[in-house]
Amino acid sequence: MAQLAGAGLAGSSVPVVIMYHSVIDYDEDPYLVTVSPARLRQQLGWLLRRGLRGVSVAGLVAARQAGDGRGLVGLTFDDGYADFISNVLPALADCGFGATVFPIAGRLGGQNDWDVKGPRKPLMTADQVRQAAGAGIEIGSHGLRHVSLPGTSDDELAAEASQSRAILQQASGQPVTGFCYPYGHLDERAVAAVRAAGYSYGCAIWRSEITGLHTMPRFFVGDADRPWRLWAKGVRHWLCWDYRGPGAGQLAQRLSPTAASAPGARPGR
Ligand SMILES: [Zn+2]
Fold first, then answer.
1. pLDDT at 69 over 90
2. Ligand 1 mean position to 222 CA, how many Å?
3. What is the C-alpha separation between 78 and 204, in angstroms, rounded?
């Protein structure tokens, strides 16, 4: 694969970052943002058995900048659903994994009103943000209101980036260094605002001509529309094709479809 623009990215490729949203048992999921707790555990177990480790994006970036991102996969949870506390934290702890959650600073304790079709889901309160931070989870910002940044005025854009950071730093008691673009929508103006607000990295969804440390693409496959084996296949493909850092050869071998699971591996659940 051709090298991406990769502005500010350490190493020669983009890091591997997986995107989740809500984790809860569900009946309807029109926006494909929900994964069942059993499915999440199955997916985390798949990573674990292959010697991969889920980490926060800040942790992943720091490791790569130190020249060692081997076997690390960034795990991100957008929107800061309250189900993160009940369903994600225990699953991460069981695997010894870290992660980044991106709450919406102006909607703490609210709900996902921007998804007009519903279903309505509660968002983390400020206390729950602090609880997640206390459990070792990185808190990043998903803006103030969950609006598409390219359509905002200069003042709104600055507030989305900087006020959200201040609110989440206050709530979490930890520095907030990562930003996640609502809907994955971004343009150069939005990226400049995120940099100006002091964030050291940004998470996007898709690759673009401005892919770099402040616009990292992420891997996403919905739970509702695809069997989880396709998720595994997709992650394997993403890792093998995109990871060009130290140990890439071993990683590709470990992930090859014919490779056996690691000895003593627990079955996925
Ligand atoms: Zn979102």
1. no
2. 14
3. 11
